[in-house]
Design a protein that fits this description.
By secondary structure, the chain is mainly α. It has a domain at 25-125. It is 83% helix and 0% strand. The two termini are 67 Å apart.
Length: 223
């Protein structure tokens, strides 16, 4: 197996799995539920608006008679067009109440708080009728939340360790691939040198044969 295939196999093995863990699915479900309950919180704010409108709609021009008498007595001022005045008061009062509610809603993030409260209420429904008397619980039941907390911490630690080891493995695999490439290059150079050496050896053998023949010819001619 060459280096490229080896690296591809490692990347395939190191690739995150497509299967999503149940914990991730649960978190996604909680987020969707939270979004839905945010809509419920906004409907609740609309109900406050409607309650304000109904309350303000009960204002009548006749309710200004007492104010008109005081103005007439102390300032000799006559209240004119009480119907228009009461309509204007309704609009201003409604706008003031709406602005106050909106400031309160945004400042304290009531939408998210209401959504979280509704989610907690739904989650706690299954515990209705349960006994919360700790003295009646077994030791394992009493310490179960603490055990779960420690197990979660250990799980986080193991996840970080695994991630660190994966990074180390990737680094070592990269170094290994580089070293294997260097060894292959050296092997190719060695083969090339062996071929060259063999060719030189053959050439030397030929030259030896020629020299022997020349030497034999010289000896023969001398005789």
């Amino acid at each position: 197996m060459d280096d490229n295939k080896m690296m591809e196999n490692f990347q395939l093995k190191a690739k995150p799995q497509d299967n999503v863990s149940p914990r991730v699915n649960e978190e996604v479900d909680l987020e969707e539920k939270h979004k839905q309950l945010r809509g419920f919180a906004e409907k609740l704010r609309a109900e406050y608006y409607e309650a304000y409108r109904q309350m303000i709609a009960e204002l009548r021009p006749s309710q200004l008679d007492g104010f008109a008498e005081v103005l007439m007595e102390h300032q000799k001022h006559v209240v004119q067009n009480p119907d228009e005045l009461i309509c204007e008061m309704r609009e201003q009062l409604m706008q003031s109440l709406k602005n106050s509610l909106d400031r309160f809603w945004e400042e304290y993030n009531v939408t998210d708080r209401v959504a979280e409260l509704e989610m907690l209420k739904e989650q706690c429904n299954k515990f209705k009728g349960s006994s919360w008397n700790g003295s009646l619980m077994k030791p394992l039941q009493r310490t179960l939340p603490l055990q779960m907390h420690f197990k979660e911490i250990k799980l986080r630690y193991l996840e970080k360790q695994l991630s660190f080891q994966n990074e180390q493995l990737k680094s070592l695999m990269a170094v290994n691939c580089r070293e294997r490439s260097r060894v292959l290059n050296m092997e190719q150079q060695r083969k090339s040198m062996l071929v060259t050496l063999e060719r030189y050896s053959q050439d030397i053998e030929k030259r030896k044969s020629i020299m022997k023949q020349i030497t034999a010819d010289l000896i023969f001619n001398t005789d």
